């Protein structure tokens, strides 16, 4: 029997890729770009533009692809027909998958351009990120159905994005590179720069993982019906909720470490002015774990801290430009 599918309208497309949530990908990109100029005085506008297109394309792909995979893999038919956008809006899953593959092709094309313009090692870094993005909801045992989502989400969207955004702006001082000498190849790495970028990224890594953690707490009952056994499932909801306040707490700890070491400017201390806001958001989530009511507080914690960090670094970059 032929199914009558609805056309993909612009509002449905924006919901399919969850455009408002793409700031979670945009802010780490901006932070990495701004930090490359703040710390190393390097900015390559063309590489930055290419990476921006590639990064947003992969972000669109991941969200849309996850929606398609969740539709196919749903064990709970009520979830498939009511909560998943493809089932609820009667969208053609084959067409949606084809559209997501277009975004993947764009992302891979931008990645190839960056490899040509920087170094071959970016092939392995970007390739690993794309592999994680695909296997997150695809394959016989998707990563999203294991207690790995929080770690992988934080590392890929947090550290991965920040590292590559800084990397493509540093063609004269690559943190890691691969060179061929006949049948031999040599890998060089500046461990100091890599460690610096990792510590700088940790607050975003933690808060980004916290968003996934809060999402999984809210979806625990639904996930169990669909045989998704995430970290809150193994911890148990009560223990998972008790651990939640440590997420933003650790993020602020690493902001402070970055300042004390000297890798972040002292002006970054104003980020601690957000503590009352983060505490209020955290208390709201601890009181009620609801996807429609309080899950947004986890996103607000991430966006507020990341936005202020970016603003501080951009201000320092402007001061540097004015002095030069």
UniProtKB/TrEMBL annotation:
<feature type="transmembrane region" description="Helical">
    <location>
        <begin position="151"/>
        <end position="170"/>
    </location>
</feature>
<feature type="transmembrane region" description="Helical">
    <location>
        <begin position="45"/>
        <end position="65"/>
    </location>
</feature>
<dbReference type="InterPro" id="IPR000537">
    <property type="entry name" value="UbiA_prenyltransferase"/>
</dbReference>
<keyword id="KW-0808">Transferase</keyword>
<keyword id="KW-0474">Menaquinone biosynthesis</keyword>
<keyword id="KW-0812">Transmembrane</keyword>
<dbReference type="InterPro" id="IPR044878">
    <property type="entry name" value="UbiA_sf"/>
</dbReference>
<feature type="transmembrane region" description="Helical">
    <location>
        <begin position="182"/>
        <end position="206"/>
    </location>
</feature>
<feature type="transmembrane region" description="Helical">
    <location>
        <begin position="251"/>
        <end position="279"/>
    </location>
</feature>
<dbReference type="Pfam" id="PF01040">
    <property type="entry name" value="UbiA"/>
</dbReference>
<feature type="transmembrane region" description="Helical">
    <location>
        <begin position="120"/>
        <end position="139"/>
    </location>
</feature>
<protein>
    <recommendedName>
        <fullName>1,4-dihydroxy-2-naphthoate octaprenyltransferase</fullName>
    </recommendedName>
</protein>
<dbReference type="GO" id="GO:0016020">
    <property type="term" value="C:membrane"/>
</dbReference>
<dbReference type="GO" id="GO:0004659">
    <property type="term" value="F:prenyltransferase activity"/>
</dbReference>
<comment type="pathway">
    <text>Quinol/quinone metabolism; menaquinone biosynthesis.</text>
</comment>
<dbReference type="GO" id="GO:0009234">
    <property type="term" value="P:menaquinone biosynthetic process"/>
</dbReference>
<keyword id="KW-0472">Membrane</keyword>
<feature type="transmembrane region" description="Helical">
    <location>
        <begin position="299"/>
        <end position="322"/>
    </location>
</feature>
<keyword id="KW-1133">Transmembrane helix</keyword>
<dbReference type="GO" id="GO:0042371">
    <property type="term" value="P:vitamin K biosynthetic process"/>
</dbReference>
<feature type="transmembrane region" description="Helical">
    <location>
        <begin position="96"/>
        <end position="115"/>
    </location>
</feature>
<dbReference type="InterPro" id="IPR026046">
    <property type="entry name" value="UBIAD1"/>
</dbReference>
